[in-house]
Amino acid sequence: MKSAEIREKFLRFFESKGHQIVASSSLVPHDDPTLLFTNAGMNQFKDVFLGFDRRPYLRATTSQKCVRAGGKHNDLENVGYTARHHTFFEMLGNFSFGDYFKRDAIRYAWELLVDVYKLPAERLWVSVYAEDDEAYELWTRDIGVPAERVVRIGDNKGARYASDNFWMMGDTGPCGPCTEIFYDHGEGIPGGPPGSPDEEGDRYIEIWKNVFMQFNRDEAGAMHPMP
To answer: CA angle 12-145-110, nearest 5°?
Structure first.
């Protein structure tokens, strides 16, 4: 399956779920001094999440052009050394503005990967933020992923909320716990599952991240619940 087909299937899948297809925004964010380049699909919806802007739709899907060459999300040091890091890439995303949340976001991800892209379910692993019991229960009970393939990851980067499974757009702004889906390439590729000492190998590759925007982080580092 070529990248154009992956993109088209993604956008049409979420369109069938009531999402508005929205064009990619500029690589240079408008009216946002906290970012040098657009580094995620949610950047153009930042003010919507914060309650400062409204759109004529509650669900959106995009294929966003991104550059990660500085700031909080900087991949430059890994480009050319791994099979999964790029300076420029397109980020496929689906967004809900006060409509659905964790349950449907997780269900949509699984349905698209397994039923549409036809990835074998037994090769998919999941990580969740250690304190996010709801996401853990949804994966293990609702979706049926075996508990041994659902990894809880806490604050593993030296500070509160500094975690592979707690996403922040930048030093300030929207943030929240996230759940990630990994594809296991098999024993022939070196590397360990998420959360293990060998997780930087290429055996287990992150193919999906659902970020649950629950907080707005201010300049003092305080977390305020989103509107």
So the answer is: 5
3-state SS, residue 34: coil
Q: Rounded to an integer, what distance in angstroms lies between the CA atom of residue 210 and that of residue 165?
A: 10
Show Cβ contacts of residue 110 under 8 Å, excluding neighbours closer than 6 positions.
143
Determine the number of helices (DSSP H) and then strands (DSSP E) in the chain.
Answer: 4, 10
Q: Between β-strands 204-211 and 173-184, what pairing exists: parallel, antiparallel or unpaired?
A: antiparallel
The rounded distance, in Å, linking the Cα atoms of 152 and 133 is 9
Q: Locate 43 and state its tokens.
A: 């950047």
Name beta bridge partners: 166: 163, 177
pLDDT per position as a tens digit, 6-42: 999 999 999 999 999 999 999 888 878 877 788 889 8
Q: What are phi and psi of 171, to 5 degrees?
A: -70, -25
| Domains of the chain as residue ranges with CATH | 1-99 (3.30.930.10), 120-226 (3.30.930.10)
